[in-house]
Amino acid sequence: MLELIDRRRFLKQSLALTGAALTGAGAVRALPPTVLAQGGPVSMNPADSRMPALFVGHGSPMNAIEDNRWSRAFRTLGAELPRPKAILAVSAHWFVPGTYLTGEREPKTIHDFGGFPRELYEIQYRAPGAPELAQRVARLVGEDVASLRTDWGLDHGTWSILRHLFPLADVPVIQLSLNGHLAPAGHLEIGRALAPLRGEGVMIVGSGNLVHNLRDAMGRMAAMSAAADDDGATTPDWAARFDTDLRTALEQRDSAFLVQAPASEDGRRSHPSLDHYLPILYAVGAGEANDAVSFPIEGFDLGSISMRTVRIG
User: Fold this and answer.
1) 10 Å Cβ neighbour count for 239?
2) Secondary-structure breakdown of the chain: helix, strand, coil percentages, each rounded to the nearest 5
3) Phi and psi (nearest 5°) for 199?
4) Which domains does the chain have, with CATH numbers?
5) Is residue 11 left, alpha or beta, with left meaning phi > 0 and alpha meaning psi from -120 to 50?
6) Which residue from 178, 182, 183, 181 is spatially nearest to 263, judged by alpha carbons?
7) Residue 146: helix, strand or coil by DSSP?
8) Residue 214's pLDDT is what?
9) Portion of the chain with pLDDT greater than 90, in percent
10) pLDDT confidence band for 252 (50 / 70 / 90)
C-alpha cells in the first residue's frame, strides 16, 4: 500500500517552488506544430442514458496519492456516477494558443509539475484514447477551429481526478485544450457545441478550481508552516464571496453572470489567470434547462483554492 506523504514535507517542497510557479502562472504555452492522429473509424453508439456534465475542483496534485478529505470525496463521487462510453476532459493545465484535441490511441500520463515526491511521478493512468471521438468533437466545434494533436496526453488536471473517479482506467479519455486567446463567452459557446455528446454516452469533465489564487494560497501555507498550524488556512472574504456568487449563478443557470464574473473585483482576485476558471464554462455550456445542478463536493483548501465540484444532470 502506498505510504502516505507527510503534509509538512509537501508544504516545504511547494513553498520552494512558489516563485517558479507564479512566474509561469497564466502564460499561454506554445506547442510544437500540429501532428494529425491516424486511425480507422470506431462506432460511437448512443448510450442508454444521458451522461452528466461535471466540473471538478482538482486542487493540489498531491490529492492523487494522499488519503485526505478531497481524495475520499472524489472516490465517493465516482461511485455515484454512471459509467460513460468515453470521457471528454477539459483541463486547466492545457492552456494554449489554439483549440486542440488529443488524438493518441494510448495517451501518455503527463507529470506537468516539478519538485513533488517521487511517488507522484510514478503514477500512470493508462486509459485508452479515442481518436474517432476526437474527430467527432472537432466536427462539432468546427474543423476550421479545432484540430487533433498527438504531442500531448493526459495532464494532471485530468488524471489526478480520474484515477479516483474511474480507478480502473478502462474508459477511453480525450482532452480538449483551452484556447488562451478566446474570451470567456467563446469557451461557453464551445461547451454548447459539445452538448450532443452527452446523449451519445460521453461524459464531459471540466477540471479546474472556481477560486484559484496560487500566490495567496502559498502565502497562507507559509504562515501555517511558520505557526506550526495544522488546523487549516482561513478563507478570505473575497474568495468565499466569489465562490458563493458562482454557486448562486449555477443554480439559476445565469450564464451571462458566469461569463462576466472573472472581470469583477472578486473575480480578478480569485483568478489572476483564467486557466482554472474556464473549464466550468464547458460543463455549463453542455447543460440543458431541465438539468439538475448539484454540488457533491464543497469547501476550500489552503484558504483560497475552492474545491467545489459541480454536477449538471
Assistant:
1) 24
2) 40, 15, 45
3) -80, -5
4) 48-312 (3.40.830.10)
5) alpha
6) 183
7) strand
8) 85
9) 77
10) very high
